[in-house]
Amino acid sequence: MNSKADYFARYEAIAAVSSRMLTAARDALWNELMELQEEYRTLVDTLRDDSGLSLDEQERLRKYDLIRQILADDAAIRDLVNPSVARLSAFFSARRPAHVLKELFGAR
Question: Is residue 107 domain-resident?
Fold first, then answer.
């Protein structure tokens, strides 16, 4: 790792790619989304060697803001890519497990 600037540039690049992935998912551009996933994975892999970097409070907040943005994009992408999973997730979270099993499978 060269510097904190490089470190944050990597996080910002990941956030930019996740934003482009969300746009591709919204536009149903699945091939583009798959290509962007490869770019995303490559960028994430570059962060693995940065565990020894010491961040001050402002830098930690900046990092957490970027991570929150990335995770929000990821959640939105998942909902767009697989809406049935989102519906099931909402279904399960709104009901107790025994009621879900009974409704889905007629379990007694």
Answer: no
In a domain, 94, yes or no: no
Quote the pTM value.
0.71
Residue 93 lies in a domain: no
Q: Which domain holds residue 74?
A: 4-82
What number of CA atoms fall less than 13 Å from residue 11's CA on the CB side?
A: 18
User: Quick check: 77 and 21 in contact, CB under 8 A?
Assistant: yes
Residue keyed to tokens 């790619």: 17
pLDDT by residue (tens digit) across 48-94?
A: 766 677 888 999 899 999 999 999 999 999 888 887 666 666 666 65
Sign of torsion over alpha carbons 52, 9, 46, 62: positive
Whether 77 maps to a domain, the answer reads yes
Contact 17, 36 (CB under 8 A): yes
